[in-house]
Amino acid sequence: MKLFGNYDVVVVGAGMTGVVSGIVAARRGARTLVVESSGLIGGLVTGGRLTKPTGLVQGGVYRELIDRAVGYGGADAAPQRSYWGAYTGVFDAEVMQRVIIEALEESGAELLLFASVTDVVRDGNRVSGVVVQTKAGPELVTGTVVIDATGDGDVATLAGAEFMIGRDGDGHMQPMTSYFRILNVDFPALVADLKDHPEDVAELVLPDSGRDRNESYALTFFMTGLSPRIKRAQEEGFNWIVPRDNLTVKAGMLPGEINVNVTRVQGNALDPRVRSQAVIEIRKQAYCAFDFLKQYLGGFENAILLDVAPVLGVRETRRIRGDYVLTEDDVRNEARFDDAIGLCNAPMDIHEPGGNRAIMINVGSGYGIPFRCLLPADLEGLLIAGRCLSVDHMAFASTRNTPACALTGQAAGIAAAEAVSNGVSPRAVPVAKIQAELTAAGIVLGTHTTDFLDETS
Q1: CA distance 12 to 406
Q2: I need a labelling partner for 215 at 20 to 30 A (CA). Which of 200, 256, 429, 441 fits?
Q3: CA–centroid distance for 294 within its chain
Q4: 382-384 and 137-148: which strand pairing?
């Protein structure tokens, strides 16, 4: 088999988690490769248009990327408040991809696109590389430390790690989805309609001024609701095929641009047939929801359906079992841990498995994420970060959100580079060393009851 290269750190997955890990490791001097199966960098935050962080983005690379996007006029870094807590403002997907590319190149990390991991290299219980399938055929990538940022825990699973999937009892997972984008929306007319029908609105965020101009709503407008109107449309014979009883819309960067979150397909995204059919079903649901908006909501009379996000929004698959499993009780009780690597305030964001509800549960002052959750049990040389973190089903409803994923990506990048520098496994890296670098980057750890997040910066 052809050797593609030898690296200090190999990051698999170039979503936000992997991007953060790769940049951090490379900046510390580790020879770093970031491997991505698609041709798109940023994963769901770019190709899936997940452009509104659900929770506060602290310091570190993720915040740096948002600040860079602000410089291009493609983000609003000002914190906002919702009924479930505070969050950092939205950004434009393409501007975010631009600043990711800049930061990756500046860091010195190498990027390999269109390469799917098909196997891992193990020496006993130590992971020392991966096999990737490229257009040139299978190639070997060796690494002193490998970071699994695939979301689905693909690398850890190939290495034989134990994983959890779905909720206890039935194994059902949160459904798949995709945003779709609409242009030529008349925001003043839309807001007038919503103001006339407050029963339709569960949450509404508006600009402070200039509400008579479309431009004022860019990257600001946000709305959740329309349950009564969907019900009325169904009673009038509208064929609402979406298995969800409300929808969420957020303004994009262009005047008159709206991104809609409403599609929903239940099933196991690890099943290739289910995953393929989900893409088709989501498009059919998007067409249906667009027709509904044009027919039943003011401001959409001249709207145009531009596109459906190219990356399928997979909310939940495998969770790799680590040295510690973060629990629902930990999240609800605002737990703090001596080895915490970040304090997270992302709500438990639950799109009901098998149902039609969307539920947001406040987590108070937040909870610490233990470093032990990044260490897959019984494996060395491997770190897990992002969506495949070691958590239970309900805790996952919070940790799946991008602020938490970025925290784990930052910690994994530091731990990997530190392990390489000292010739040890990531499990042997002193947590205090990781924590000191995280603190220096402006991240609140979640180690003490007095830790809190600044909602004004």
Answers
A1: 15
A2: 200
A3: 30
A4: parallel
Per the CB < 8 A criterion, the answer to whether 321 and 376 are in contact is: yes
The token pair at 385 is 């970060």
DSSP 302: T
Q: Where are the alpha helices (DSSP H) in 246-366?
A: 272-296, 328-332
How far apart, in whole angstroms, are the C-alpha atoms of residue 18 and residue 410?
9
Taking the C-alpha atoms of residue 95 and residue 66, their distance in angstroms, rounded to an integer, is 9
DSSP for 362-411, written as a single string:
--TT-EEEEGGGGSBTT-BSEEE-GGG-SB-HHHHHHHTSHHHHHHHHHH
Residues above pLDDT 90, as percent of the chain:
96
C-alpha to C-alpha distance for 432 and 449, rounded to whole angstroms: 18
Instruction: Give CA–CA dist 197/119, Å, rounded.
Output: 55
- Which one, of 146, 96, 95, lies nearest residue 117 by Cα? 146
Specify whether the CB–CB gap between 336 and 448 falls below 8 A: yes
Mean pLDDT by 10 residues, the chain (457 residues): 97 98 98 98 97 95 98 94 91 98 98 98 97 97 98 98 94 96 98 98 96 96 97 98 96 97 97 98 98 98 97 97 98 98 97 90 97 98 98 98 98 98 98 98 96 88
Task: From residue 73, give the alpha-carbon distance in Å to each of 187, 213, 253.
Answer: 20, 18, 9
Q: Which residues contact 76 (CB under 8 A, 6 or more apart)?
A: 70, 89, 90, 91, 219, 220
Our measurement of the distance from residue 218's CA atom to the centroid of its chain's CA atoms, rounded to an integer in Å, reads: 22
Residue 11 and residue 32 in contact, taking contact as beta carbons nearer than 8 Å: yes
DSSP string covering 250-277: EE-SSTT-EEEE---B-S-TTSHHHHHH
What single letter denotes the amino acid at residue 308? V
In the chain, what are the domains?
A: 2-171+317-440 (3.50.50.60), 180-308 (no CATH)
